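Lab notebook, page 48
Experiment: co-folding of the full assembly
Goal: obtain a model of how the components sit together before planning crosslinking
Operator: M.T.
Materials (sequences as entered):
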Amino acid sequence: MRNSIIGIIVFSVLAVCPLFVGSYWTGQLTNYLVYGLLAISLSLVWGYGGILCFGQAMFFGIGGYVMAVFTKGMIYPDLTSSYIGLIAAMAASSLFAVALGYFLFAGRGISGAYLAIITLAIALVLERLMSNWYALGGYNGLLNIPPIKLVLFGLSYELWDIVPTFYIILGLVAVIYFAVTFLVSTPYGLLLTAIRTHPDRLSFLGYSVLNIRLSVFALSAAIAGLAGALFVTLDGFASPTLIGFTLSTEALIWVAIGGKEMLLAAFLGAIFTRVAESWLSEIFGDYWILILGIAFMISVVLLPKGLLATPFEKLIGKKRRAIPPPPAEGDPSPARPLPPTPDQ
Amino acid sequence: MSFLSLNSLSKSFGGLKAVDNFSLELAEGSLNALVGPNGCGKSTLFNLITGSLTPDNGSVVFKGDNITGLSPHQIARLGVGRKFQVPAIFEELSVFENLIIAARKNRQSISLPALLNQIKLWREQNQLAGELAHGQKQWLEIGILLAQGPSLILLDEPTAGMTASETRETANLISMINRDQKITVLVIEHDIAFIEYLDCPLHVMSKGQILKSGSFSEIRNDDEVKELYFGRSQETPLMGSDIHA
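Observation: model returned without errors.
Model output:
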């Protein structure tokens, strides 16, 4: 409950930002919200699901390219709906995650550093592939991607202006954030904690570890794909850099600094790091990256739960309680049916 | 028809035969113990039964169905529960949440409060499982197995690291589970005093095979076991017992 209240406060503060910052920073903040969405997706799969995906940007990039080819009419000239583009972007990223996840997690599965290296390698391969795929713009990418076109009750509105775009993106990000927060507070969240701490035990209880891992991997990829799709409509172009090593690593740093096991901390980690980058790079030039590195090391060594998650945990209490314990001591209640699990 | 039939199971790792042409039949509702030194193949045998490993030869037949080659979660769904040597619990979840996760795979309704009382963790139900004492973790894992609703449980050293009194209580708990809940139990244990307390058929395993089977007293007085397995000394582990102390 406290978690949700803090979330509402954070999104309320973000909502009033355009009143106090200029149009430049509102535009920048819109981009950072999308990066925050990418961080939420990584927090879900890494912090909750225990899958260290070093190539999260591949899903972001796939979403971006799919959105681009749909809204530019490259698939079918009359099929340029932003809604279809967003859905297709999420679906494509998700399907790619299922296909990739099957090879990663089937059988005894790959985990830990091996998983990180393989996902990073796949992201690099995809980046190289996109750089040489001339039908999709090759190294230069796809240009002139139209902004999101909202169609409601026959009326249509294209998101060219900065402030409306900010609020639409903020609304979408808030919906995703609260939906994922709700999801991890359900029994599915318990399963994610269980699979992160002892997958073998879960398997010996009759759960398909493969199915649970695939589900969280695909869900995370869908969110990252949505972020990528939104991003290309803001910048108006999709390039191979969206899909590769640099963005993947940056996302990991945002989430590690914020706190991988707390969605809000990961989200704010992305925003704060990007804001800090803008300010510090003006003062220190390229040396700002050293400060980021120091923050990352402090986070990993001294505050492994994250620079933001540590104080947040003190605010909201250490342990979430997904399912209340039985009511009274010494008077066992009668047997009660349990709700079905997502795995069934 | 046997409840569990292990038919000529073999498993090698390189040149090492961990399990060698092993056969065993367990009757429904029985309680059996398997003893043997480290490396004799006991845990490998459990891995073969539960699907962690696939045998090179032989088959595992459970309630008339050949379950050889099934994955661990498929075998678990058939009603086979397994306890590991090192307590395998979800340390970041509370005791109650550990049981909830297991109970969701139980086809029948189960009273978790009664189960918490049974494993003596009622007061600790809200505590993180990782914060429990070692013996309590062992009991929690047994509780997880019971919440799962199995018809066969395989216990790998359930009293490892326990005090004498905890060992005694664990033996009582296992006997009760077998007697009252009619669950078939196969226990691997090093603590002979614990086995003596269980008072069940005993199988001595060596080099991947069964060396001897019989009651505790038969095994204790068997010259072959003493000579080949426990050594010549009359002061074998089978003679001593601190469990009744």
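Interpretation: The beta strands of chain A are 149-152, 155-158.
Next step: discuss with group before ordering constructs.
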